[in-house]
């Protein structure tokens, strides 16, 4: 009968290595959980506030959970305010500005990334610098321009302002992606007789869809949440966007926190759902140009 050898105890160094690895994993997951909680907490608080009664919101002791809950604030948002009109205005301005911005960004990025443009480094530096400008510094010049053109309190004036606001960000996102595509594609298209616009439309854009989706999503979020330009350039509910409309809920003596929270949830939830549905495409578009084959 063959004797079964006794198990060899693990070396102390291997045990310590496993413990260190386990500790690192636990700390990493705890850090990720803390960041997620820190990011999601404001939205969860707004969600809870939107279902609480007014007397609970005005009490000294805060109510963390909406117990008992109410849908009165959501009813008030769509009956006591012109919120539906603000939503329509935001959709019109945001979609228009994002679509025009994507077209201009694709043309500009193709020229900067694929064509021998003199001084492209300076152009890119200027584009990056424009994206860092605080909005307050451009409000007065843009106001004077739109006033001279008669475009104040119009969809056209606000949409054109949003195009300029999101365009540097779109170019910055698309540039790395366009640069990562092999130049042999342009050469093959030129041999087949395709011009620059045909090459861009039929060859580059289909391959650049992840980057275009990421740029479009970032531009959409930027334009949807913008407040300062919409406040300065619109003066009537017929053209004001959602952020300006929500700010107008409060009166001189009363702030309807529940109504404002409900409106914020209605506005934020579609963006959250869109980002969750397209998160892989957005991440792929942002990181596609990070490593060049």
Question: What does this protein structure show overall?
Answer:
With 293 residues, this protein is an all-alpha fold. It is built from 14 helices and no strands. Helix 4 crosses helix 10 and helix 10 crosses helix 14. It is flat. The relative contact order is 0.13. This is Carbohydrate ABC transporter permease.
Distance between the termini: 61 Å
Structural class: mainly alpha
What is the N-to-C order of secondary-structure elements (H for helix, E for strand)?
HHHHHHHHHHHHHH
Instruction: Output mean pLDDT.
Output: 83
Q: How much helicity do the residues have?
A: over 70%
Described by strand count, sense and barrel closure, the largest sheet is: none
* Radius of gyration over all CA atoms, rounded: 26 Å
Strand content: under 5%
Uncertain spans: none
Report the principal-axis shape. flat
Number of helices: 14
Record the SSE blueprint.
Elements: H1 12-50, H2 54-57, H3 72-79, H4 83-114, H5 120-131, H6 136-149, H7 155-180, H8 184-191, H9 196-207, H10 209-225, H11 228-233, H12 242-247, H13 257-277, H14 279-287
Helix pairs in contact: 1-13, 3-13, 4-7, 4-10, 5-7, 7-10, 8-9, 10-14
